[in-house]
Amino acid sequence: GYKKVSVLYVNNPYGKGLNDVFKETFEELGGTVVASVPHDEEGAASYTAELRKATEGNPDALLALSYPGHATVYMKEAIEGDFIDEFLFCDGTQSRDIVEAVGAEAVEGMCGTAASAKKTESLETLKSAWKEEYGEEFPPLPYQDTTYDAVVISALAAYEAQQAGEELTPKAVHDHLRSVAGPPGEKVFAGVEGIKKALKLLREGKDIDYIGASGDVDFDENGDVVTPIEIWCYEGGEIVAKRLETP
């Protein structure tokens, strides 16, 4: 329902890339980007100058494309200084730090996006192992599952390279990533037993297809893994997943 949105973004490839894609897509959908204002990556004690630029066109909402260390400061200033009190978020601003900084009521019902995962056997295994190890539920924060998968895939690629008699170098690991992470091959999953099975198959010279906690981790021709995008919202001071959008 937003017609006019401004963007405050961290001035690095992450923030600029998100800003550029948002502007293109939002305008294709008929919206107007009132202002796109960068801020320094190093952080600052105040962002009033940037907030003034971002809100002088009276946007319906401010899209916060930053990290929590930045957003906790400028969102508090935005609300207390009566610049704007309606926000949209990304994975970088999916953080309990923001709730603590501005209060749960200030962001109640406001939403954002983050890379997410399809539900798989591996995801359930990771969640169970996390709870057993740390005594708490798997946290709803971005890139926990993908980081786990990155470590597992790198280890499996290194092991396959060693089994092939290759010197263990970064290039060798790189060259074996696709063969352990995608078809063809026998499907293997996360967790101790899943990884034991994967290593056994590799020792036997067989192909494997790792199904990760973040879903299928099949690399495309550019070396990217395409995942669903999660729509999440702040509700009752918590980060609540609402739905998945599949590309």
Structure description:
- This protein is α/β, with parallel strands linked by helices and 247 residues long.
- The chain is built from nine helices and ten strands.
- The protein has helices spanning 13-28, 48-55, 68-80, 96-102, 104-107, 121-134, 144-163, 170-181, 192-203; strands at residues 4-10, 32-39, 61-65, 87-89, 111-115, 186-189, 208-212, 215-216, 229-235, 238-245.
- α7 packs across α8 and α7 runs parallel beside α9 (192-203).
- The longest helix is centred in the middle third of the chain and has 20 residues, at 144-163.
- It is elongated and about 65 Å long.
- The mean pLDDT is 94.
Concise description?
By secondary structure, this protein is α/β, with parallel strands linked by helices. Helix content is 43%, strand content 22%. The strands form three sheets. Strands 2-1-3-4 form a four-stranded parallel sheet, sandwiched between helices. It has a three-stranded antiparallel sheet with strand order 5-9-10, with no helix packed on it.
Descriptive tags:
three-stranded antiparallel sheet; four-stranded parallel sheet; 9 helices; alpha/beta; elongated; 22% strand
Topology of this protein?
Elements: E1 4-10, H1 13-28, E2 32-39, H2 48-55, E3 61-65, H3 68-80, E4 87-89, H4 96-102, H5 104-107, E5 111-115, H6 121-134, H7 144-163, H8 170-181, E6 186-189, H9 192-203, E7 208-212, E8 215-216, E9 229-235, E10 238-245
Parallel strand pairs: 1-2, 1-3, 3-4, 6-7
Antiparallel strand pairs: 5-9, 7-8, 9-10
Helix pairs in contact: 3-4, 7-8, 7-9
